[in-house]
């Protein structure tokens, strides 16, 4: 059984290391030595920017200490950067995203805010009750996240709810759709229509 788990881990690391091999940051990762773990971490963050520590560890099948060690080496090398997001520390490829984009990605990595953003890209100006119905959560939950998104500078609440920079949100959701799940993938398919509506 352990052998099967080890093979699965190696396969996952090799797959993400191959993605990392095309990153301009891979040289920094390789210069730090180690196994496939560091190139795999770079590859993973290229496809899943804004992931938090536990998700990175679990998706790559690494141990806690192993993940901490390799992420710290990548941070020290300047290949990766991180920011605190509430109870989480989120990780990004270095010098790739502005502070506003990192904040946006942090919220997009959370299911309810992501659902709200997708709904608002489709129906700008939706009310709290409409969002609650679309996202399948309670109105107080929508209010809580709407307040957080407003404080983060991502949402405005004048006449219904509207995204402040819908273009950036759409680009991030489409570019990393595979890492966000089915709702983002469906949005990516509709992106040309949504862009034409905004013109």
Structure, explained:
The protein is mostly helical and 199 residues long. It has two domains: 2-96, Winged helix-like DNA-binding domain superfamily/Winged helix DNA-binding domain (Arc Repressor Mutant, subunit A, Orthogonal Bundle), CATH 1.10.10.10; 101-198, Arc Repressor Mutant, subunit A (Orthogonal Bundle), CATH 1.10.10. The chain has twelve helices and five strands. Strands 1-3-2 form a three-stranded antiparallel beta sheet, sandwiched between helices. A two-stranded antiparallel ribbon has the order 4-5. Helix 1 (2-20) packs across helix 3 (37-47), helix 7 (111-122) packs parallel to helix 12 and helix 10 (166-175) packs across helix 12 (182-198). Mean pLDDT is 85; it is low at 28-32.
List keywords for this structure.
Arc Repressor Mutant, subunit A; 199 residues; 3-stranded antiparallel sheet; 12 helices; mainly alpha; 2 domains; 66% helix; two-stranded antiparallel ribbon
Summarize the structure.
With 199 residues, the chain is mainly α.
Strand percentage lies at 5-15%
Distance between the termini: 56 Å
**What is the highest CATH level, the class of the largest domain?**
Mainly Alpha
Instruction: Label the structural class.
Output: mainly alpha
Q: What is the domain total for the residues?
A: 2
Stretches where pLDDT is under 50 for at least 5 consecutive residues are: 28-32
Could you tell me the CATH topology label of the largest domain.
Answer: Arc Repressor Mutant, subunit A
Largest sheet: 3 strands, antiparallel
Sheet with most strands: strand arrangement: 1-3-2
Using only C-alpha atoms, the radius of gyration works out to: 18 Å
Overall mean confidence score, pLDDT: 85
């Amino acid at each position: 059984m352990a052998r099967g788990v080890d093979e699965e881990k190696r396969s996952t690391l090799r797959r993400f290391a191959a993605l990392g091999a095309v990153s301009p940051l891979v040289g920094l990762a390789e210069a730090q030595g180690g196994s496939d773990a560091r190139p795999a971490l770079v590859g993973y963050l290229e496809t899943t920017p804004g992931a938090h520590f536990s998700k990175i560890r679990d998706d790559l099948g690494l141990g806690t200490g192993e993940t901490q060690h390799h992420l710290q080496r990548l941070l020290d090398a300047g290949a990766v950067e991180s920011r605190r997001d509430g109870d989480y520390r989120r990780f990004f490829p270095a010098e790739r995203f502005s502070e506003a984009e990192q904040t946006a990605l942090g919220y997009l990595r959370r299911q309810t805010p992501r659902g709200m953003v997708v709904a608002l890209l489709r129906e700008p100006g939706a009310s709290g009750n409409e969002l609650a119905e679309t996202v399948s959560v309670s109105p107080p939950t929508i209010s809580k996240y709407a307040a957080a998104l407003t404080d983060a500078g991502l949402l405005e609440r004048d006449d219904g709810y509207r995204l402040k920079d819908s273009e950036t949100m759409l680009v991030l959701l489409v570019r990393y759709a595979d890492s966000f799940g089915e709702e983002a993938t469906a949005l990516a398919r509709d992106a040309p229509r949504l862009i034409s509506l905004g013109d």
